[in-house]
Specification:
Blueprint (H helix, E strand, L loop, with lengths): L2 H6 L4 E3 L7 E3 L6 E3 L4 E7 L16 E2 L2 E4 L8 E3 L9 E4 L8 E10 L5 E9 L7 E6 L2 E7 L17 E7 L7 E9 L12 E9 L4 E4 L1
Parallel strand pairs: 1-4
Antiparallel strand pairs: 1-2, 3-12, 4-13, 5-6, 6-15, 7-8, 8-15, 9-14, 9-16, 10-13, 10-15, 11-12, 11-14
């Protein structure tokens, strides 16, 4: 592989912190493995609007070329929808020794994307101060395996001011196919703890599928 080809395949991570100028941050290769031309953009803490302009605090599930998924669409995680903790509905991913380590959403495509797909996630890391490792797959193929980008909350109150982080991931259209397409996020921390760290919370998500016709499974 040529040097130019290798550089084009590197994942770039851009952190946009509130009140700060844009800055690029390359994730350590020892901690991160992303596939092909997948790109990750950390939009920042407290960012509610995605590239599609939607609010991801507590949206209604809707479908167009852009699919907006409420937190309740995550299956397999531990879901809480009353917003009493952390300021919004969420699905918790606990350690690998629990039944809640992986959450999945599934969409149906009646036509395939004509360009790169953007997956926008909202998430929160636990209060332990240690970032959890996560794995993200599309139809069983890993697109990211490394340290979570989600900010950790400080354990104050009931998390009403928790620093939810919005992340946009650009994925080649070739990862998607006609019919059912699954997107899964897993917490890779080896733990049996429940209702306490280690955990990762997922809020609502959004998928932009250029040129595709989609529905929620």
């Amino acid at each position: 592989m040529s040097l130019g080809s290798f550089l084009r395949r590197r994942v770039q991570v851009v952190a946009l912190a509130s009140g700060l100028a844009l800055m690029s941050l390359a994730l350590p290769l020892a901690d991160t493995l992303a596939q092909n031309d997948v790109q990750v953009q950390v939009l920042g803490q407290g960012v509610q609007a995605t590239a599609g302009g939607s609010n991801l605090v507590n949206p209604t599930t809707s479908v167009s070329t852009t699919v907006t998924l409420a937190a309740s669409e995550w299956t397999g995680g531990y879901y809480q929808g009353n917003g009493a903790w952390y300021g919004r509905p969420w699905a918790a991913l606990y350690g690998t020794q629990t039944q809640y380590s992986t959450a999945t959403v599934t969409i149906q495509l009646s036509s395939t994307p004509t360009g790169p797909v953007t997956l926008t996630l909202t998430g929160l890391n636990d209060e332990s101060g240690t970032k959890n490792p996560i794995n993200i797959t599309i139809n069983g193929t890993s697109i990211f395996n490394g340290t979570s980008w989600f900010a950790s909350w400080d354990g104050s109150g009931q998390g009403e001011n928790a620093p939810w982080t919005t992340v946009a991931i650009t994925i080649p259209a070739s990862y998607f196919a006609l019919g059912a397409n699954s997107i899964a996020v897993s917490n890779l921390t080896n733990s049996s703890n429940f209702s306490q760290p280690p955990y990762v919370l997922l809020g609502a998500a959004q998928i932009n599928l250029p040129g595709a016709s989609a529905s929620v499974n």
